UniProtKB/TrEMBL annotation:
Keyword Ribosomal protein carried by entry: no
Annotated signal sequence range: none
A Pfam family reported for this protein in Swiss-Prot or TrEMBL: Peripla_BP_1
Statement: the UniProt record of this protein carries the keyword Lipid biosynthesis: no
PANTHER family: HTH-TYPE TRANSCRIPTIONAL REPRESSOR PURR-RELATED (PTHR30146:SF148), LACI-RELATED TRANSCRIPTIONAL REPRESSOR (PTHR30146)
Occurrences of domain HTH lacI-type (ranges): 1-58
Protein known as: Substrate-binding domain-containing protein
Listed GO MF terms: DNA-binding transcription factor activity; transcription cis-regulatory region binding
Top-level taxon of the source organism: Bacteria
Keyword entries, A-Z: DNA-binding, Repressor, Transcription, Transcription regulation
Length: 343
């Protein structure tokens, strides 16, 4: 299969096909439709550029490929990449980073490009924990999923935040502060423990919360499901709760919900934490802007990136068998939003 075959099947010139497959399509104003047609055709025909065909074979290249669904649009993705870069440098590797935008075809093209350059291994990263389809082109190169699980039976090690332990930590903070009643959840309904739909983080945080509350014989008084974890939905859910009942503590399943809850409490004339304690998850920058600063359980993005590279290096350098699941601890970020219940 040659470049000329791809060009002919795509209905473009060989030059255009070459520019698309070397990543210069947008630079030279090739239309998005033509670019997608060339990439789709190349994939269907099984065409792969062998950019190092004339170079020496054998040995390691000391490079790692890192493919993320988001780089430029997310500070969290940047933190994961920084952690991966730092770890790669410490182990004598160079990191090549690509952004797929969540497009499986672009992801496949990026992985192929990294394999063509003989990357010793590849990290497939997701900004938000989710199930992903592992590209079938990764069957012959060491690979690690970062902040993601495999949607298929492909056996690839995964590196994930320890969301269950995060839920335990949040519940323990409230129990140790003396809260044993009038605790309400914001973000998940009483009968919908998987909210938002298909959210791995939600179900695991709830599992950890329920474990500690059950051990302490604390019953959650109520829960408000939110279709999205945004400040607007956090505000609406908390305002609806306050119209019926005054809680002693709110467990918000992320910091954006907590931000909305703060606003609803303030409008009701209630203070945090004097009247109501509030705790969140993720340690989003918004948590540090809130007054008092929100107590939250942090997603360790830098450490997640570093951990993924360490696992991959073990596979590449030592050819070691590694556990299939690696859980990275989520630390508590103490703020001033949790206190002993009054009255």
């Amino acid at each position: 299969m040659t470049l000329a075959d791809v060009a002919a099947a795509s209905g473009v010139s060989v030059t255009t096909a070459s520019l698309v497959l070397t990543g210069r399509a947008r630079e030279l104003r090739i239309s998005a439709e033509a670019e997608r047609r060339v990439r789709t055709t190349a994939h269907e025909l099984g065409y792969r550029r062998n950019v190092l065909a004339t170079g020496p074979r054998g040995g390691r290249s000391q490079t790692i490929g890192f493919v993320s669904d988001s780089v430029t649009s997310s500070g969290w993705a940047a933190d994961m990449i920084k952690g991966a870069v730092d770890a790669a440098y410490r182990h004598g590797f160079m990191l090549f980073v690509g952004e797929s935008g969540g497009d499986p075809l672009v992801e496949r093209t990026l992985v192929d490009a990294m394999r063509d350059r003989r990357a010793d291994g590849v990290v497939i990263a997701s900004t938000h924990t989710r199930a992903v389809v592992v590209p079938d082109c990764l069957t012959d190169v060491p690979a690690v999923l970062l902040n993601a699980t495999s949607a298929t039976a492909v056996a690839v090690p995964v590196v994930l935040p320890d969301e269950v332990q995060a839920g335990r930590s949040a519940a323990r903070l409230l129990v140790e502060a003396g809260h044993d009643r009038d605790i309400h959840l914001i973000g998940a309904g009483a009968s919908r423990h998987d909210s938002p739909p298909q959210s791995i983080a939600a179900s695991e945080r709830l599992r950890g919360l329920r474990e500690v509350f059950a051990e302490a014989d604390v019953e959650v008084a109520g829960a408000r499901w939110c279709p999205k974890w945004t400040p607007e939905h956090g505000f609406a859910a908390t305002a609806a709760l306050l119209s019926e009942h005054r809680p002693k503590a709110l467990v918000c399943l992320n910091d954006h919900l907590a931000f909305g809850a703060y606003q609803a409490l303030a409008e009701a004339g209630l203070s945090v934490p004097e009247d109501v304690s509030v705790i969140g998850f993720e340690d989003h920058p918004v948590a540090s802007w809130m007054r008092p600063r929100l107590t939250t359980v942090a997603l360790p993005h830098h450490e997640l990136g570093a951990w993924a590279v360490r696992v991959l290096v073990e596979m590449v350098v030592r050819r070691a068998r590694t556990p299939m699941i690696h859980r990275v601890p989520m630390p508590v970020r103490e703020g001033g939003s949790v206190a002993a219940p009054h009255g």
